[in-house]
Write a structure and sequence with these properties.
Layout (H helix, E strand, L loop, with lengths): L42 E5 L5 E5 L12 E5 L1 E3 L3 E6 L4 E11 L2 E7 L9 E3 L5 E7 L6 E6 L6 H8 L25 E4 L11 H10 L2 E7 L3 H4 L15 E5 L1 H12 L4 E4 L1 H10 L4 E5 L14 E5 L6 H9 L4 H14 L10 E5 L3
Parallel strand pairs: 1-17, 3-12, 3-14, 4-11, 14-16
Antiparallel strand pairs: 1-2, 5-6, 5-8, 6-7, 7-10, 8-9, 9-10, 12-13, 13-15, 16-17
Helix pairs in contact: 6-7
Length: about 350
């Protein structure tokens, strides 16, 4: 388990640690309901190392990278984690699978939660049921034990019965399930896409490869930790929900070699940031509840490609930390520029490329 120690700095003494200091107003019309087509035709807001803002398209990314740089991407694959069933009484039930807990056992959010105490049974079809065997005190999620026919794999059942869970702010979309996967998605397990990677195309990768830009992959299964709201006024008191990740020895060696040769390491998305910073330059497989906020001492990364994040979110705090001194103020002013410039926000929205501050 990896965690970030409390700084001991009270929120009232430093606005960077106050939850309300990460708020901003976004017109609902700028919440993207559909992705750009082609993927790399989204916009890209580039923040230069000296904090100059430049407006581009995502297919302009090669302008800002050079031979020897290393892109790190998250190859997790979104599973159809939203499932529908009924109680034995016939009452409709909706569940969202969050994370596996063992053989055919998943921690899951359920609706209606109050009607599903321990011992309740959810019926999906004549062959598949699940029993509530526990309740997580932190999230009120249910521990569901699935009951399947012999020689049946749960992931195949989920593929048959489930739906890809789009974010709740995507309310008027024509998106196809495959558009909510990166083109390099490989390892099933996420309940949400690592959305910064949605902008990449095979053609863009080919162009970067021809330039000598390297790429490699970590796995972090996006779960509740990425999206759970901060409920403490002092953000240093927020406890992240753990997410599973894997960083291989080969990736660590590639990072070391890149650094030694003067190349830059760029994370594609906040999940890669959490994975690499949690691993601390060692191979790592397990869970992390690392939360990054201003004052964090960065270990590895030189750049981040990221989408625009929700107000008061841990992801917004992470990006403020990455920008260094006065990072929160500068990030919020940059968001104002993006809003006034008509950028599209959140999962299907536009992207930013930023470089680490001092």
């Amino acid at each position: 388990m990896v965690t970030l120690p409390n700084t001991g700095i009270a929120a009232e003494l430093n606005p960077d640690y106050a939850l309300n200091a990460y708020n901003y107003d976004l017109p609902p019309t700028q919440i993207a309901q559909n992705p750009a087509v082609p993927r790399d035709h989204s916009r890209l807001l580039h923040i230069s190392p000296d904090r100059q803002l430049q407006h581009h398209q995502f297919y302009d990314l090669p302008q800002f990278l050079r031979a020897g740089d290393l892109l790190l991407l998250n190859n997790t694959k979104v599973i159809p984690a939203r499932m529908f069933g009924t109680k034995q009484s016939g009452v409709a039930v909706e569940i969202l699978l969050m994370e596996p807990m063992g053989a055919n056992r998943w921690l899951s959010l359920v609706k209606p939660g109050k009607r599903l105490p321990i011992g309740s049974t959810i019926v999906f079809n004549e062959n598949v049921t699940a029993t509530v065997e526990g309740i997580d005190p932190a999230t009120r999620a249910r521990e569901l034990q699935f009951h399947l026919p012999d020689h049946t794999d749960l992931l195949s059942v989920i593929d048959q019965l489930g739906q890809v869970p789009f974010p709740p702010y995507v309310t008027a979309s024509d998106v196809l399930s495959e558009q909510y996967q990166t083109i390099y998605a490989k390892v099933p397990g996420a309940i949400a896409a690592p959305t910064a990677g949605l902008h990449f195309t095979d053609q863009l990768f080919a162009q970067l490869e021809a330039m000598g830009v390297q790429r490699d992959f970590i796995t972090l299964h996006v779960g509740l930790g990425t999206f759970r709201p901060v409920e403490t006024e002092n953000i240093t008191e927020h406890i992240m929900h753990s997410e599973w990740l894997s960083v291989s020895a080969e990736v660590i060696e590639k990072i070391r070699t890149t650094k030694a040769n003067g190349g830059r390491v760029i994370a594609v998305g906040s999940t890669v940031v959490r994975a690499i910073e949690s691993a601390k330059m060692q191979p790592f497989e397990g869970k992390t509840n690392l939360m990054i906020y201003p004052g964090y001492q960065w270990q590895v990364l030189d750049g981040i490609i990221t989408n625009f994040h929700l107000p008061k979110s841990t992801l917004l705090m992470m990006m403020a930390a990455f920008l260094g001194e006065n990072g929160r103020e500068f990030l919020l002013s940059t968001y104002d520029v993006a809003i006034n410039g008509g950028y599209r926000f959140y999962s299907f929205g536009d992207a930013m490329l930023m470089w680490r501050g001092n």
